[in-house]
């Protein structure tokens, strides 16, 4: 009797493993889903400045000179618009940069990222 129970559990575990192999995303798929993609928009500098003034100056300073957060005055020479979009969307580990995906629309984040990328 015990052999039948053990073999039943073994076959159930094998069936579950096979189902999971075909339904779980691969590592590459998971990385792609985790990486935000910059939407195609036309940059609006005035809109980006307004968004920055409303959301960023408390940490990055009123002239983006840096305060609690780093200086962003020439951030475009270090990071691309796509990289900035990812950082603003997801934030940075350790809580040094919060995520803005729940506070701002994708288009607003993209606009700010493109505006910052022009700062070289």
TrEMBL record:
Name this polypeptide is given: C-type cytochrome
Keywords: Electron transport, Heme, Iron, Metal-binding, Transport
InterPro entries recorded: Cyt_c-like_dom (IPR009056), Cyt_c-like_dom_sf (IPR036909), Cyt_c_BACSU-c550-type (IPR012218), Cyt_C_IC (IPR008168), Cytochrome_c550/c551-like (IPR051811)
Entry-linked PROSITE patterns: CYTC
PANTHER family in the cross-refs: CYTOCHROME C-553-LIKE, MENAQUINOL-CYTOCHROME C REDUCTASE CYTOCHROME B_C SUBUNIT
Domain of life from the UniProt record: Bacteria
Location of the Cytochrome c domain: 42-120
């Amino acid at each position: 009797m015990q052999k039948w129970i053990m073999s039943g559990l073994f076959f159930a575990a094998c069936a579950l493993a096979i189902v999971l192999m075909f339904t779980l995303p691969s590592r590459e798929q998971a990385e792609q889903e985790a990486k935000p993609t910059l939407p195609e928009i036309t940059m609006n500098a005035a809109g980006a400045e307004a968004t920055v003034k409303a959301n960023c100056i408390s940490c990055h300073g009123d002239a983006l000179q840096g305060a609690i957060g780093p200086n962003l005055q020439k951030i475009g020479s270090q990071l691309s618009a796509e990289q900035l979009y990812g950082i603003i969307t997801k934030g940075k580990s350790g809580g040094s940069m919060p995520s803005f995906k729940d506070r701002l629309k994708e288009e607003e984040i993209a606009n700010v990222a493109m505006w910052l990328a022009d700062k070289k």
